[in-house]
From TrEMBL:
<feature type="domain" description="Mur ligase central">
    <location>
        <begin position="122"/>
        <end position="297"/>
    </location>
</feature>
<comment type="function">
    <text>Cell wall formation. Catalyzes the addition of glutamate to the nucleotide precursor UDP-N-acetylmuramoyl-L-alanine (UMA).</text>
</comment>
<dbReference type="InterPro" id="IPR005762">
    <property type="entry name" value="MurD"/>
</dbReference>
<dbReference type="InterPro" id="IPR004101">
    <property type="entry name" value="Mur_ligase_C"/>
</dbReference>
<dbReference type="GO" id="GO:0008764">
    <property type="term" value="F:UDP-N-acetylmuramoylalanine-D-glutamate ligase activity"/>
</dbReference>
<dbReference type="GO" id="GO:0071555">
    <property type="term" value="P:cell wall organization"/>
</dbReference>
<dbReference type="GO" id="GO:0008360">
    <property type="term" value="P:regulation of cell shape"/>
</dbReference>
<dbReference type="Pfam" id="PF08245">
    <property type="entry name" value="Mur_ligase_M"/>
</dbReference>
<keyword id="KW-0963">Cytoplasm</keyword>
<dbReference type="GO" id="GO:0004326">
    <property type="term" value="F:tetrahydrofolylpolyglutamate synthase activity"/>
</dbReference>
<keyword id="KW-0547">Nucleotide-binding</keyword>
<dbReference type="GO" id="GO:0051301">
    <property type="term" value="P:cell division"/>
</dbReference>
<dbReference type="Pfam" id="PF02875">
    <property type="entry name" value="Mur_ligase_C"/>
</dbReference>
<dbReference type="GO" id="GO:0005524">
    <property type="term" value="F:ATP binding"/>
</dbReference>
<keyword id="KW-0067">ATP-binding</keyword>
<feature type="domain" description="Mur ligase C-terminal">
    <location>
        <begin position="319"/>
        <end position="432"/>
    </location>
</feature>
<dbReference type="GO" id="GO:0009252">
    <property type="term" value="P:peptidoglycan biosynthetic process"/>
</dbReference>
Amino acid sequence: MEMKNMKNITKYQNKKILVLGLAKSGFSAAKLLHDLGALVTVNDGKPFEENREAQDLLSLGVKVITGSHPIELLDEEFSLLVKNPGIPYSHPLLQAASAKHIPIITEVELAYEISEAPIIGITGTNGKTTTTTMIEMLLNQGLSKGTAYLSGNIGYPASSVAREVTPEDVLVMELSSFQLMGIRTFHPEIGVITNLYDAHLDYHTSRDEYVQAKWALQKEMTSEDYLILNWNQAEIRTLAQTTQATVIPFSTQEKVAGAYTFDGYFYYLDECILAIDELGVPGQHNVENALAAIAVAKLKGISNDAIQKTLKSFSGVPHRTQFVGQLHGITFYNDSKATNILATKMALSGFTAENVILLAGGLDRGNGFDELIPSLIGVKGVVLFGETKQKLAMAAQQAQVPHILYAQDASQALEVAYELAQPGDNVLLSPANASWDQYPNFEARGDAFIHAFEKIKNKNKE
């Protein structure tokens, strides 16, 4: 294996390392560590015969244990454990590793250690993917040399992308709280926190732990680094007093020494950048995302012309209020990435209520939907599916939504909504729930919705 661009680190040579959980990031981490000379053991729950990644790693000479997670595994003296971000720390194997004082990291830490390119790290409860995508597009529109690469939670394993970058490039990395709980020396040159709300409290033991995980983004940053923070949130303003990094605020409520909106325009310091209504995606939340992205672009020396071009043409992110198509004057949007109530409220804020038919439902995490009621007032109809459909129906009844309908899943929900819709209506899949009761992930749920749209469209052609 030719180590063409990455830092050639020797600290893992002949070290016994356990990689827990494969999927994309675990596979990437195991391969990287193997190439760095580590003695890698991989443990994954999926049986070997169905486990393509495990088969590939075995052929490279990596030790593979699949189908279960035997605690005895830890009898070998591992010097490090790299875990898949989705596996909670309450997992028996992780608990046993902690008791043995084996350090536990996630693969973004490995990515940082080998990356020759500086890192821009983006985290927050909502808007991460949109902001990350905007930043990557802004930089690639305006950088005079080098390329910006998407990586991290956005679907490109950080430890794979980090192998390919040069010092002139930039790694634009979306980071979840799960990934950030497993960092030690990780050090972005620019950090972004889009916002902090309640989320993933089934994974984190408390809200405080969740906030601390997000805030870990800045723990290795120095005064030469920049931390871009949402000044609309009092909690973040308080946290800002505890960082070594140079803080650049963004706000839609006041003029700040950073990015802000004023009188219908985006500003950075005293420069007017573009009109808010020229932004290519709807919704107040996207105004905040754009402010964070503008701050990064200005810090990286991107011209106002390049910023205008990019933000005017920005049409959103797959599964995040993504325009799917139009049929008989009815417009269809896929916002499958809305896996919590707040994300759905934000999506609804981008539309006129009486023209919206909302498709929602999914995994029951035990929460109610009272918070959604104000956003449902005035909505034309809802089509509900999944484990939470009855709970959502109660919220819709309280909001006096005139049409409350049910479906088996996201595909059938689109068909039901299409029957109800009139020209000028928007059919919005924005589930307010995780997808795991019916789908392997939110992408699969969004893809099912898109396929259902294509099917109806093709039928109409016949």
